[in-house]
């Protein structure tokens, strides 16, 4: 694997680790305070985590040289992974709309909203750092 592919793989691994931590934080906080918006963000981050794992696999695979079964190389793996990531985004959107509609219809208390704000600030900062890293190697 060349140095560019190694850099892509390293940043994809950072993205996977970051999204794993964010999913855990958001699920814990969202469930503990009863916030659909934080839980929705946890779902969104879970989809990001799955997308990051798919991207990690794609960049590792697409960096491989051509072989007998793939005479033109493995570059198309990145395109297929993009399609899978788009499907994940639509799935997450549907799930979030469903959960929000249930909360609108049935209501529910929200406790300790400050924890929700705090986890969202941490998430925004982490996503900014990771997205800049991804942009540099993209």
Please identify the structural class as seen in this structure: mainly alpha
Termini Cα gap:
16 Å
Total of DSSP H or I helical runs spanning 4+ residues: 4
Helix content: over 70%
Taken from the alpha-carbon principal axes, the silhouette is elongated
Rg, Å, rounded: 18 Å
What is the element string, with H for helices and E for strands? HHHH
Profile the largest sheet.
none
Low-confidence stretches: none
Whole-number mean pLDDT: 81
Strand content: under 5%
Please characterize this protein's 3D structure.
It is a single chain. By secondary structure, the protein is mainly alpha-helical. It starts with a helix and ends with a helix. Helices cover 83% and strands 0% of the residues. α2 runs antiparallel to α3.
């Amino acid at each position: 694997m060349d140095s560019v592919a190694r850099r892509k793989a390293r940043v994809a691994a950072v993205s996977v680790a970051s999204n794993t931590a964010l999913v855990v934080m958001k699920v814990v906080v969202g469930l503990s305070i009863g916030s659909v918006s934080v839980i929705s963000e946890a779902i969104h981050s879970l989809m990001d985590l799955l997308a990051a794992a798919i991207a990690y696999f794609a960049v590792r695979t697409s960096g491989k040289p051509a072989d007998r079964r793939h005479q033109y190389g493995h570059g198309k793996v990145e395109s297929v992974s993009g399609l899978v990531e788009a499907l994940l985004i639509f799935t997450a959107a549907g799930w979030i709309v469903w959960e929000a509609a249930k909360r609108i219809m049935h209501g529910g208390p929200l406790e300790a909203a400050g924890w929700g704000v705090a986890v969202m600030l941490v998430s925004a900062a982490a996503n900014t750092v990771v997205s800049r890293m991804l942009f540099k190697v993209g």
